[in-house]
Amino acid sequence: MNEIPEPAAVGLSVRGASKRYGPVTVLEGVDIDVRPGEVVALLGENGAGKSTISSIIAGLIQPSAGTMSWNGEPYAPASPADALARGIGLIHQEMRLLPDLTIAENVFVGRQPTKSGRIDRAYMAKRAAEQLHRLGLDVSTSTLVRNLRVAAQQQVEIAKALTLDAKLLILDEPTAALGGEETDHLFEQIERLKKEGMGFVYISHRLDEIARIADRVVVLRDGRLVGTYATAQVPVKTLVEAMVGRSVERMFPAVTTPADREVLRVEGLGAPDKSFQDISFNVHAGEVFGIAGIVGAGRTELVRAIAGADPIAAGTITIDGKPLSPRSPADSLTAGIVLVPEDRKDQGLILEHTIGDNIALGNYPRIAPSGFVTPSAVRSYANQNIKRFGVKGSAGQPVGHLSGGNQQKVVLAKCISRRPKVVILDEPTRGIDVGARAQIYEVIADLAHQGLAVIVVSSDLDEVLGLSNRVMVLSRGLNRGILDRNQANRVSVMERATL
């Protein structure tokens, strides 16, 4: 049952927020309150209006209708700078730090303090260090941002807002690139800041996180407010159904029973940089083989090496009984291995090109066996795969305009069109809403049903457990065990992942 909280006496109050672009309404009549010292989870599928309402609150865009107040006073930011000046900041999912500047320089970029006509670097370092300490990050402020792990970069973004005395932070998919241990650390930071009176709007597709971190939940669908919950202790099924507008009986499809035929065998594989060592496993036709582990365990490095993207220092790879020594991705592709990378925007797609052109990349021999490629042939081939994978878009539409879920379907369409023997999916649903996620799961199950060998790497433990016939757990670059489906659970996997 939805419960509508009393209007906030202090903090942020949004009433009737709407946004229209010409005749198209993307947000209509949304009310949200965020009190000091609480976390309000903002949920919804891609396109539900989460980014729009967040952008309105953070001053990135102006509402077409509605009013806001902040600490009892009218609030109408004309820009992000206005919002920050009032104490409200937005931490984007895709961080916007400058990699070749130091931590201190990033924290104060565009507003460097001066002393006697020169930039006061001592003050910058002192203030940045104070905020990093407040967040529990023990690292020199003279460190270049490019040398930081993703979790630490995120802390720098938060520290940047804290130096501006932010009292409310909007966190957009803050754990999308984090593992379990780093997520726990982020939650500790949020709890610490909550006790200091800071409020949060927390946007995430990982519903298991909501009960852990949020105090209340707001659900949007098609630009409208469809659910408000005075507690975060709401069944996941209830939240999913509110988000998608229909009953969701099963998130994960039925698991296919693998065949006896072995497709891929890896023995004693090791990397030159020791990111993984002495890794051995096999995958059968029709099997989904999961790889679990915390960030830094060597999961991505391992699958990139199998796909020929990174070098191999030791060990062997066999495909259908034939040895493979990949020196490049082309070698692995020729042998029948395709990799759907974790960073679809930078590594899987050319965002400025159309859906049709992206699907066609690498598939020209199938589109035009004679070698003469025509626009009509590309369009026809793309349309077949758009229909097959349920992409919501047309062949001539720029792929950069699609939602994350539809972009991932385009990458899948491009890779699967090669008719591979082994499909490796690295973080296949990162940053994808729950409805599109279920569709991706169906595609993965269908690949296994067709007899392909499928490898799934994911930081989402429920995803690995729900999809896989067997799960290999990596920790510190080592294989800590391969568990059958009936043995794999949160406890058994995490015990090995933290060795």
From TrEMBL:
<keyword id="KW-0547">Nucleotide-binding</keyword>
<feature type="domain" description="ABC transporter">
    <location>
        <begin position="258"/>
        <end position="499"/>
    </location>
</feature>
<protein>
    <submittedName>
        <fullName>Sugar ABC transporter</fullName>
    </submittedName>
</protein>
<keyword id="KW-0677">Repeat</keyword>
<keyword id="KW-0762">Sugar transport</keyword>
<keyword id="KW-0472">Membrane</keyword>
<dbReference type="Pfam" id="PF00005">
    <property type="entry name" value="ABC_tran"/>
</dbReference>
<dbReference type="InterPro" id="IPR003439">
    <property type="entry name" value="ABC_transporter-like_ATP-bd"/>
</dbReference>
<dbReference type="InterPro" id="IPR027417">
    <property type="entry name" value="P-loop_NTPase"/>
</dbReference>
<comment type="similarity">
    <text>Belongs to the ABC transporter superfamily.</text>
</comment>
<dbReference type="InterPro" id="IPR003593">
    <property type="entry name" value="AAA+_ATPase"/>
</dbReference>
<dbReference type="GO" id="GO:0005886">
    <property type="term" value="C:plasma membrane"/>
</dbReference>
<dbReference type="GO" id="GO:0005524">
    <property type="term" value="F:ATP binding"/>
</dbReference>
<dbReference type="InterPro" id="IPR050107">
    <property type="entry name" value="ABC_carbohydrate_import_ATPase"/>
</dbReference>
<keyword id="KW-0067">ATP-binding</keyword>
<keyword id="KW-0813">Transport</keyword>
<dbReference type="GO" id="GO:0016887">
    <property type="term" value="F:ATP hydrolysis activity"/>
</dbReference>
<dbReference type="InterPro" id="IPR017871">
    <property type="entry name" value="ABC_transporter-like_CS"/>
</dbReference>
<keyword id="KW-1003">Cell membrane</keyword>
<feature type="domain" description="ABC transporter">
    <location>
        <begin position="12"/>
        <end position="247"/>
    </location>
</feature>
<keyword id="KW-1278">Translocase</keyword>
